[in-house]
Amino acid sequence: MLPIVEQAQKYLNNIAIFSNGKSFTYAQLVKDSNYFAALLLKDEKDLKEQRIAFMVNPGFDYVKTLWAIWQAGGIAVPLCITHPLPSLEYVLEDTAASTIVLSKEYLAVLQPYINKTNINFIVIEEPALEILPMVNKEQGNFSMPTIDISRKALILYTSGTTNKPKGVVTTHQNIKAQITTLINAWEWSENDKTICVLPLHHVHGIINVVCCSMWAGASCYFIPQFSPKLIFDLFTNNGLNVFMAVPTIYFKLMTYLESISQKEQVALKNVMSSFRLMVCGSAALPISVMEKWEGFSGQRLLERYGMTELGMAISNPYFGERRAGYVGMPLPGVSIKLVNEQYEQASVDEPGEIIVKGDNVFLEYWQNQTATQTSFTKDGWFKTGDIAVIENGYYRIMGRNSVDIIKSGGYKISALEIEEVLRMHEHISDCAVVGIDDEQWGELIVAALVVHDRTFFNEVALSKWLVEKMAAYKKPRKYLLLEELPRNAMGKVVKNEVKKLFES
Ligand code: MLC
Ligand code: AMP
Fold first, then answer.
1. Cβ–Cβ under 8 Å, residues 102 and 175
2. What pLDDT shows up at residue 127?
3. Is 280 in the pocket of ligand 2 (CB under 6 A)?
4. What CATH number belongs to 405-503?
5. Which residues form ligand 1's pocket by a CB distance below 6 Å?
């Protein structure tokens, strides 16, 4: 049996999930995911790592689908529910997914792809599930293939220093290691209640919130979309005690807190003070945000550092000092080194690139041997591209070794990917995309443009055009029209000069 499903046997009567106003026990999750796995298998005994893409709303159906794909021997490929068709198509084609599972509201966006390819698709709706001929849902317990832990389990797409996102492949063993290190380090238990406010196509939401709570036998609440009011209502009325988010979310929650009365603020502070744990990560947590949040909530945030390729790697301690501006120490089972540009150990107190080894480290980039090879050192350490220094025993992240990677709202975004789309626009002859510091978003995406004729440039029309081609969170938020881009003697655009133009 799969490790996470085996874990659930200990907690069958616990509430696993609250979503859409309903609660679901672990017993129900095991039974329904087993049934859905039988539906995915149809006449086959094992999906043998077929890629099963799914575009399913956060909640019981999402977790059921994920567990079903894993039990049936497939590789799960979660799609972002807000992506436009071209971004979805890229993932579906790159993984050569054999089936798409979807909530019915996403049928319209995917229909052109379904028509074009004839791909097998399953709409999640109770009546549709009854079509499985050979099984009776009530009997349950359909026989499932034995899945070796070394098999591939998940592909998540991440942007990097290339213009197209890469598929990060993790095995069941990687996932187990990523989950269990956090279960121990952060003392997850079956008494925990958390809420997932993060998108479910990235590790932060999938591993840290959903899989950790499901592994521990805890309860996980879901909301349909990010809403500070809904989150605080759930905090107040449902006895939640664990919360995890990116810095931008804490910022947004504080903007809401500032908009309510003093009396309401005090009441919410009382509720939040009793939480067992609040964690922040995916991007640098500004000290100002950490301190202000402590004032509002009575909670000292635990900041940690992670990556799609690793799950979590470095964390402030659960017990002990949570140091502002630092991400803490390597998690148990995760080996970390800081190295210089020759990949030799950096001197003590010197900054270096973080390289990582451990069962948590991903297997490979999907069908991209070159990228896989170049991202590991000869002796098997994964090169993160993040620069850090150790000060008094704690790691501090200093930045990245590439200006082309932007972190905005906790999303990792490739400047090159946006530039490639911008260059397709009829009025744009050249462009340079950079991230500039921003307290709310971490970095704000901005673009310097050279246009053929300024009279034809229309920012609103450009924004509309862009979001038909890529995710809205990748859209530049400011533009600057230039006669030419700043270049060095080699003709290469100097991105730091572009940043300065915006900052001035
Ligand atoms: C959205 N907006 C932005 C923006 N994203 N503005 C500037 N920069 C951005 N990046 C604007 C929109 O245009 C819109 O404006 C308004 O904000 C609301 O948009 P939205 O899409 O509805 O945003 P919202 O729902 O509020 O989402 C904000 C968010 C979201 C913070 C909830 O960005 C989010 O869920 N981020 C988490 C990403 C994540 O999970 N990363 C983890 C990756 S894993 P207007 O004017 O149009 O209304 C990883 C490893 C690890 O990093 O360590 O964890
Ligand atoms: P992703 O590729 O989306 O998984 O993002 C991973 C990247 O997020 C890392 O390589 C870091 O650059 C960044 N990151 C994650 N956590 C932190 C943190 N606490 N502080 C600074 N950067 C972080």
1. no
2. 45
3. no
4. 3.30.300.30
5. 198-199, 202-205, 226, 246, 248-249, 281-282, 306-308, 408-412, 441, 444, 472-473, 477
